[in-house]
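anyone seen this seq b4? input:
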Amino acid sequence: MATHESVDTGGARPGAGAPDEKKEMKRELTRYASFAMAFGFVSIATGIFTTYGSVLNSSGPRGIFAWPIAVIGQLSVALVFGALAARIPISGYAYQWVSRLVNPVWGWIMGWISFSFLGVVVVAVDYTIASTILPELLQYQGTQENAWAITAVVILVQAVLVALSTRLTHQVNKTAVTIQLIGMIGLTVLLFVVGAVAGKLDFSTLFQAAPVAEAGYYSLGSAGEVGPFALAFLLGAFTIVGFESAANLAEETRDPARVIPKAMVQAVLSLGVLGFLFLIAVTALIEDPVKLAESATPVATVITAVLGSGVGKALLALVVVSIFSCGLVITMSGTRLVWAMSRDERFPGWQSLRKINASRGTPLNATLFIFVVGELVLASFAMSTDALFSLFSAATLLPAIIYAGTVLMYIVKRKSLPPTQGFSLGRWEIPVIVIASVWLVYELLIFRDESFRDPWLYVLVLFAIGAVYFAYLLARRGVAGLTMPDMADVDRTLDTDDATGTVKPAVPQQEEVSDR
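predicted toks r here
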């Protein structure tokens, strides 16, 4: 993409700005960098280390069999997102898609929900380092106070990296993802091999329900309570999210319409398979599920017990790198969403948040804003006696709402979508949307359980804040003032040649290509 200062790639009202007010960024992301964004956000190390203890308590070892079902469900969602990303490759993903295909009002709502998700998930991820990994790695007593302080510092370091350099951030993430891939594969193999040699592998453990009662294990529950096995789906539902972060950086990706859909699907598939093998290895090595359920760091406890203190600590250090990378990707994704909505003049403080720093080439103000939001979310959960469960529950509920809204929009608008530029569901479209719909309805129904009161409270508070601002926005501009630019204009801008600054011909919008 060219770096003309006056070009607006999706704003409501284009206009020229000073050198420090550029509204677009360079296309620097390669195919692997895009995959690393999706892989780094999902991060099985983060998700499993964060939620395994809760699932062990709520569903027992048998709960891991909910994982492959959740992976299939999330894969179907990723395929729908890929079909949309190939048609509207613009930063802001669901916000942009819904704004253009439904209307700007629903698009704004989707954008605000996405912002609420990114604001809480970065805290959930970074809190994992402080509350479950470092105490085991460095052998100290974890408390609410030191977990809060460490998490605050980690959020700060991630924001500084994102603000300093997009290229440096991607390099750190690519390196971390490579380390995570090699490390998690190596860790899984080691657990199987060492466990088998030591005679510690017991696959019968995989089918145990303890410490949960066997009676009613697969029950659908009642109006305010869900069954034990249903709660196990949170393990996959929390972990296999964030693949859409690749779509959120579409305007910084080379050939995004082809690269991004493949990156999302590859990330979900690879993480799904590797994650399940890792879960099988850890669970088969549990000596006493009831006793392990009392541990604050059950996965770390198993690894250290099987591989020894030295190897165990080295691999836990690898997990810290993986989790840090995950938080880094989330921070970057959050800044891009805030920047995209601000560029369209639809976010509180947009006048400042839409600016791209001329020397850094990064949305500096948007990054600072995401940092402040993260610290505020952390402070609001800091005194909770079950902060980690509340954080990961909120970070599972919000993407489920985003995914459900986006899939519903796709179902309604699929006959009138813009032509695809590199990826389509083809004859698999109907099966994919059926699986995605069934999965998302089931997932959302899990959150009727009374244990999710705090996450719902967080969601409602954020929605209330958003409603106040959006009411002001509508009163000031009206619905007509929120009109998005025509897709033909967006395509033309996005097809600007990076090297020459010239504009390639846009795909004729009237010649819609059918993918069915």
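Residues 298-343 form the longest helix (46 residues). The chain is about 65% helix and 0% strand. kinda curious what u guys think
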